[in-house]
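Quick one: Helix-turn-helix transcriptional regulator from Ligilactobacillus murinus, structure tokens please.
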Amino acid sequence: MNANGIDIGQAIKFYRKKQGLTQEQVAESSGLSVKYISLLENGSSKNISIQKLSDIASALEVNLATLLTNDKPQFSDNSTPYTELLFLKLQNLPTEKSEEFSKVFLDLFRSLENFSK
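--- reply ---
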């Protein structure tokens, strides 16, 4: 399912796995069938409407534009699934909220570091 070099099916699969979701969970949240999600991810289905793609993006908690770009976040080899999930959640928040949450997390880390000394 290439649109300008973008494999939407692979993007769906990437973000589904990063969110720790099954195809069944994405299908249920998006109102689509498991078979359809599977066909998209495997590149067997070439047709998807913007509305269906938007529903999938909502189920994955990412912006529609995120699925339409090749810009997947790069994680280090030693990052954990929870670290990656936290990063993705922060990345998909509005900038102001992401900054606010990041500051809270950093304050929490500092407090925990001081507590453990």
